[in-house]
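Supplementary Methods S3. Complex input for the 9MR-bound model.
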Amino acid sequence: MKINITKFTVTSIILIIVCSISCANGLYKSNIDTKESLSDKYKDLFYIGAAINEDIIMGRDSKSENIVRSEFNSITPENSLKWMYVQPAPNHFNFVAGDKYVELGVKNNMYIVGHALVWHNQLADFMKRTESSDEFINHVENHIGTVVSRYKGKIDAWDVVNEAFNEDGSLRSSVFKNQMGDNYIENIFKLVEISDPDADLIYNDYNLYKPAKLAGVLEMVKRLQSNGTKISAIGAQAHWRLDSPSLKEIEQIILNISELGVEVMFTELDITVLPNPWKLVGAEVTQNFSKFEGDPKMNPYENGLPQSIEKQLAKRYEDIFKLFIKHQDKISRVTFWGVMDKHSWLNDWPIKGRTNYPLLFDRYYKPKQAYNKLINLIGN
Ligand code: 9MR
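Predicted complex, serialized as structure tokens:
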């Protein structure tokens, strides 16, 4: 009896060791019939990226990190390079996470994106309180000069300005517009170019399938081009739904952007499968959704995603990627906004505490049907 227990213990220890080694070597794909990764498959078409959170960057989530290193050849920091974390107080810079992030990308030879230099959200409070325009502009110059120069030659592309337009295509009223004037986008792009002339410079925004909004962005691109200001790409964020936008609308984004001679990047792709409270109450986005928190009707898949929806999601991803493949000459990068479902921002937006399934890897780090579809779209 004693011998049996010892044998059992030794066998268990060996099994645990073998399993940990396998997991670290990409066997999270044991349910998949290919050893080739997504980025291998798409390497001749466009970069395949993922936004990575601070746990991955700081080495606290090795399972996700393993997926990132195997499956993706581009990374974006989900939050770690945003102003409020990098320069929380005047001239107090914190590069702990930023340096780790860049190190991960350099080590793995990835296309490293910096996100985002200028955004009205997640901005340091002192910038919102700065009263004089001159002082505000000094802070902007200092921020861009310090951050961009630090990672010069390592960060390949910057989301220079993020979400500066309203849905009707007009310029959003923000602290940057108010302090720096209507030409602020152009001036900021120029500043970034001075600090790193070789970096790709991106304007990034959501809802670009809406013609009026896209038109506003395209006008801005033309203005920059007409006075010789460098702009390399438009980032279309791609926080989409199972049924919207249509493939036609997505194709229009690609065609209209590439017509101006700039690259198309899909920078924040994810697809929510959950009910949309807007449907219940019209299109007013300023209302408070906290009343839906804990409402089971708004969180129908808490205990698992039904096969029918999983299939729908896979088909939606497949259709979108068929379109991307068709336009591979115009698209230079497709980045998913996260690695696995459990850590997606869509579990908490627009209603907190839901269970969403928007990405390619499930809550147990396993590739989903959608992943298989995308792998199988490219021949061997
Ligand atoms: O995914 C990010 C989430 O963790 C933050 O709480 C949120 C704060 O606004 O920002 C999210 O990322 C956003 C990105 O930086 C810009 N485009 C929209 C993304 C989703 O909100």
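The radius of gyration is 22 Å. Residues 348 and 354 are 6 Å apart (CA to CA).
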